[in-house]
Amino acid sequence: MKVAVLDVKGKDTGRKVELSDDVFGIEPNEHAIYLDVKQYLAHQRQGTHKSKERAEIVGSTRKIKKQKGTGTARAGSIKSPVFRGGGRIFGPRPRSYSQKLNKNVKRLARKSALSLKSKEKALVVVENFSFEAPKTKDFVTFLNSLGIADKKSLVILGENNANVYLSSRNLTQSEVITNSELSTYKILNAKSLVLMEGAVEGIQANLTK
């Protein structure tokens, strides 16, 4: 599958880049996508939640009323969970939300996500470029030239480019990453995918191992 290469102004350079059908043209596997996105979102959770249980509450352990004869349930301490200010029953404890996922499944999920974007015509390839200095205005001009300034976009670089990254950092609708940081969630979360020409080879190499 061949795709036209655009310049920084959004115009056709007359060149085309070959996108591998094994990466950008497969039949999407929705279950693999589900598993990979589920793992990604689970790993965003810190798992540091904690509430105090009965043994951790500061208070007297004095028996607050006699065992029998009151007509109500027995109570041994003011720290009991049934009293206001007492400990919490089965409260949250620190835990890890990490999930295991086979590498081949993750690879299949990323290829499926890229294939979906390709089928939706939401993927463009742009020749490698850089800015002389970090300027958000220049990056917005670049997005406008592609017609995606008002859409959530993901720009994938072939290698680290500080000026391009810093120029996009103030924009909530756009994100710049390198091909090694690519994930299924980020691909699907963006309405438009912008691939630098230098990133294509790296993506295809990573996903065809």
Offer a quick outline of the entry:
By secondary structure, the protein is of the alpha/beta class. The protein has helices at residues 21-24, 30-43, 103-119, 136-146, 162-168, 184-189, 197-207, and strands spanning 2-6, 12-18, 123-126, 153-157, 174-178, 192-196.
Give an account of the 3D structure.
The protein is α/β, with parallel strands linked by helices and 209 residues long. The chain has 2 domains: 2-45 and 100-207, Ribosomal Protein L4, Chain: A (3-Layer(aba) Sandwich); 47-96, no CATH class. Helix content is 33%, strand content 15%. The protein is built from 7 helices and 6 strands, in the order ββαααβαβαβαβα. The chain has helices at residues 21-24, 30-43, 103-119, 136-146, 162-168, 184-189, 197-207, and strands at residues 2-6, 12-18, 123-126, 153-157, 174-178, 192-196. Strands 2-1-3-6-4-5 form a 6-stranded mixed sheet. α4 (136-146) packs across α5 (162-168). The model has no long low-confidence stretch (mean pLDDT 93).
